[in-house]
């Protein structure tokens, strides 16, 4: 039977994956209230369609930080794609190339930066955490530039890893045959050892992430790369303004998929204030809870320049490898174009707040 929606890929992926791997992918932090709120927040908006508009040729393409995309959709940075498919990030890179979407490779990718770049036919960015070892960070940046990556995405909402109860209960550790191959194995040793009540991922982050990072440190990174710098994990107008002041080229409104501070704002609730706080030309990206092309349209109407998708891509990868991931991305793109047509807004510039009606919501 054909899988026609991300929710169908979700069910199929869950049936295929080991329980602890599924929990690592699906879970959030704490009581998972923010994880649930990310999904629920889309229900606070209804679409306002216009009629008798020429929608014979809807165009969702755009240029983002100098890269051309066929749709305003990208794959959010996620670790260890080989947990769900033997080809890992190489398969994901081929899928984004086929669909004209963006791939943000994670610092904990399970294929080398060079292998991912060789497989990618479309734009490719690299996500970083701020490590205690700045020499390692600098080396990754140098490799990314040499391999043709077009931007750096610094995750700024993880001075420590959120308390993810599913991983703690499972004593989750990365399997021995799956490694963060772009980092020295000694740096990653803790991630491969977990016990009941202790997550290898959490132990590794505590050892390797630098919790003393401040806005002033961004200058060090800017000095070492000519690539655009994107800050991921912005949820407030205050931090959005500081990002602009400190030379960021874009931000991602994100609560880490509900995996960091439980009880934090749903990303969609934070999006309007961030958009309103930055100059009109400054790109604001979005992630958190996107499960359909209509969800993409809502985020774009609230001011996002592009939308990143996480878990659904891993579901597609788990079910069908490259083809499955490409099918999920194609579904989201085609659903977005379908939504634009029925909304009477055939161009992305027409997707503004006038396309939405706000319902009474919990987070206002």
From TrEMBL:
Q: Which organism is it from?
A: Streptacidiphilus cavernicola
Outline the extent of the FMN hydroxy acid dehydrogenase domain: 1-361
A single Gene Ontology molecular function, please? Answer: oxidoreductase activity
What cofactor does this protein call for?
FMN
Print the keywords alphabetically: Flavoprotein, FMN, Oxidoreductase
Q: What is this protein called?
A: Alpha-hydroxy acid oxidase
Q: Which family does it belong to?
A: Belongs to the FMN-dependent alpha-hydroxy acid dehydrogenase family.
Q: Which class of enzymes does this protein belong to?
A: oxidoreductase
**CDD domains annotated for this entry?**
alpha_hydroxyacid_oxid_FMN (cd02809)
PANTHER family registered for this protein in UniProt: 2-HYDROXYACID OXIDASE 1, S -2-HYDROXY-ACID OXIDASE-RELATED
Q: What is its EC number?
A: 1.-.-.-
